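ok trying again, last paste got cut off:
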Amino acid sequence: VLEYLADLEGAVAELANTWHPDDPQYRADVYRQAMMSLSYSYFAYFHATPEHPDWAPLWNPVYTLQPNPDDIYLYSPIRGDLSYRVSGNRGTVKILSFTTQRYMSGMVDDISQIGGHNEIDDQDIVFARNGEFELIFSAERPAGHTGNWAPIHPQATGMMVRLRSYDWENEIDPALSIECLEPVPPKPRLTPEEIIERIREMAKFPARKTRSYYRLQNGVKERVGFNVFEPIRMKGALAKQVYWPACFQLDEGEALIIETGLPEHRPYWNIQLNDPYFNALEYVYRLSSLNGHTAKIGSDGKFRAVIALQDPGVPNWLDPAGYKEGGIYGRWYDCDTNPTPIIKRVPLTALRQHLPADTPVVTPEERAEELRRRVRACQRRRRW
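nice, full thing came through this time. structure:
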């Protein structure tokens, strides 16, 4: 089997493109990242087929390559020449969206082949009063069909679902099924050749993912350096969304203050911390992300967060989980304006001199309760 997994070395070779290629901790982290991506790739290649679709976990269980902590991602292979029915209950999450596209990241060597994006979110879906719905996906609208329908690209290979929650404690995740509407034979047993080919593709997956996303994060650092945001709007999935990435850097005894005005119309926004390899930081047992529901807004209407290695005793602490360098990703979703936040690097002992005088004190007991509630809320979401 080692012969079939030889392409895993490609992921290790990407160590050369990290910020500290000679650091033993970075080497170990890259090994771990390769295993994260490999563990996900089993679901990508073995769990389902376009003829026999089924939801698989996408990124959340392994944190690989920057999942949004507010999102539960699901994936199923599909074919653009087939039609599908997605049905179930919407639940009460903030946003439910479906994206169909040609190839998923990590599944092809040339990322320019990824495309053919079509997206629909709950603003364009009609639900029954109890949240039940059916949604047909096909290349063309079926004759006489007047219900929910979404087009898929003729060359589509995958469908991705985002279950985006604001209030992790109280919102209810959707319950969804997907089925192929064309007659298909029973799901077959894989041949030895098919199994070996899929194992080979699994082995290629970590390097493909790492190569793409290291470029993305390194590009921000090369263009604007550390502690500066560079807003971008990506094409394809979630075209309504403006991202505001940055690369952060701080030392022991320092804090980074993130400050921004807020759009007047802001259906959804959030901010999260990533490690230096573009993976989401631990977000169950660390306070490494905030969103428009959990963030505390200042009396002047501005949002301020503080990155610090130790609890700074103020609202909106973003815990970097021991990393002195890493990534930040914020999102404005369908907002009327898209402000660019600023970052100020200050001594931790002087933090309050750089914050409004009415900034509350968060006690250790209050912080511990905040974390306890977060852990319970996140564990009760369907991440697997």
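cool. The helical segments are 9-13, 24-46, 192-224, 364-379. The first strand starts at residue 56 and ends at 57.
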